[in-house]
Write a structure and sequence with these properties.
By secondary structure, the chain is an alpha/beta fold. The chain is built from 14 helices and eight strands. It has an eight-stranded mixed beta sheet, with helices on both faces. Strand 6 and strand 7 form a beta hairpin.
């Protein structure tokens, strides 16, 4: 398997070097599409061995990514961003998979999203199709949160899991400007298709991150029963609704969305963490103490352990526990 890397970016001098260096020895072609930098990003990319192309940003990530696909020469393409590094890949196992199944059109990778720059033990895990065949009909869709999967499946090709790991550092410093941009792109996408639950979910998450809680609540309540959401998205929607109702001091309503166990232990730890907040707000310190000591919560990569320690210390004082 020979792989071309396809990267789009803008003003990425702080992180691009780490991205490209992580690809050396794996990708024998690295395509970098600059979407409007006013710093030395294109020069840095070229100096590191990437082929540099330029694209006029049109408020559509898929357009930029599909532009990058024009220049790849290898049969397989790895899509990666400038705030990510390729940290694990087993080429031998990938070759074996293709030899066993010639109908593979793409591979899912594990995306490890770091959440706190002061504590790299806080992270979330997602799985996305990032490695895929070169084909003129395999293209990204969606102005934001763009996906390659639908075009692969439309060709009747299979997408299988892999042991590839990409580490993502972008969530550690989410700028308000970037969130507002994402909000506008999501709103534009939904204007084109008001029935798209996938983009409504991401719009609700963005509204939540911008503290537009009323708007986020309305969207989450609209979509939470949709069969088109994944189990993970439904779980996240319930947790967000719990947080929103806590913010409204409606603790009984918050608890309704936080009682169901989640199969994913990391996400279930976050659910318990938010549930404990409802108990504290109701002065039910015994229940909060028990929840904070739950191993699932304590081992969750979503939960800030410093906050847990501070909460437990305060509860111990209230309950008179040494």
């Amino acid at each position: 398997m020979e792989i071309s890397a396809a990267i789009i970016g803008k003003n990425s001098t702080k992180s691009l070097e780490y991205t490209i260096l992580s690809l050396k020895g794996i990708c024998n072609q690295i395509v970098f599409v600059d979407t409007g930098s006013d710093d030395q990003t294109p020069q840095l990319a070229a100096r590191l061995g990437a082929e540099v192309y330029f694209f006029d940003w049109q408020n559509d990530f898929s357009l930029a990514r599909n532009f990058a696909l024009r220049f790849v020469r290898n049969d397989w393409i790895l899509s990666i961003d400038t705030d990510e590094i390729l940290s694990q890949i087993d080429m031998h196992k990938l070759d074996e998979s293709i030899e066993r199944n010639s109908n593979i059109g793409g591979f899912n990778v594990t995306l490890k999203n770091y959440l706190n720059k002061e504590d790299l033990n806080q992270f979330s895990i997602h799985h996305y199709t990032r490695l895929f065949r070169k084909h003129h009909l395999i293209r990204f869709s969606g102005k934001i949160h763009e996906q390659i999967r639908p075009s692969i499946e439309a060709l009747g090709l299979e997408i299988v899991d892999s042991n590839i790991v990409i580490e993502h550092f972008g969530y550690m410093e989410q700028s308000a400007e970037k969130q507002v941009r994402n909000l506008q792109l999501l709103e534009n996408q939904i204007e084109e298709n008001d029935n798209d639950v996938f983009f409504k979910y991401h719009l609700a998450q963005t509204e939540f991150s911008l503290k537009n809680f009323q708007k986020a609540k309305e969207i989450f309540l609209e979509i939470i029963s949709s069969p088109l959401l994944s189990a993970e998205q439904i779980a996240f929607s319930k947790i967000r609704l719990g947080q929103i109702f806590i913010n409204e001091n409606n603790f009984s309503e918050a608890e309704k969305y936080l009682l169901d166990k989640i199969d994913d232990d990391n996400l279930d730890g976050l659910r318990l963490f938010v549930l404990a907040a409802t108990k504290i707000s109701r002065h039910d310190f015994q229940s909060a103490y028990k929840i904070y000591n739950n191993p699932i919560l304590l081992n969750s990569s979503y939960v800030d352990k410093k906050v847990v320690d501070q909460a437990l210390s305060a509860i111990k004082q209230i309950l008179g526990i040494n």
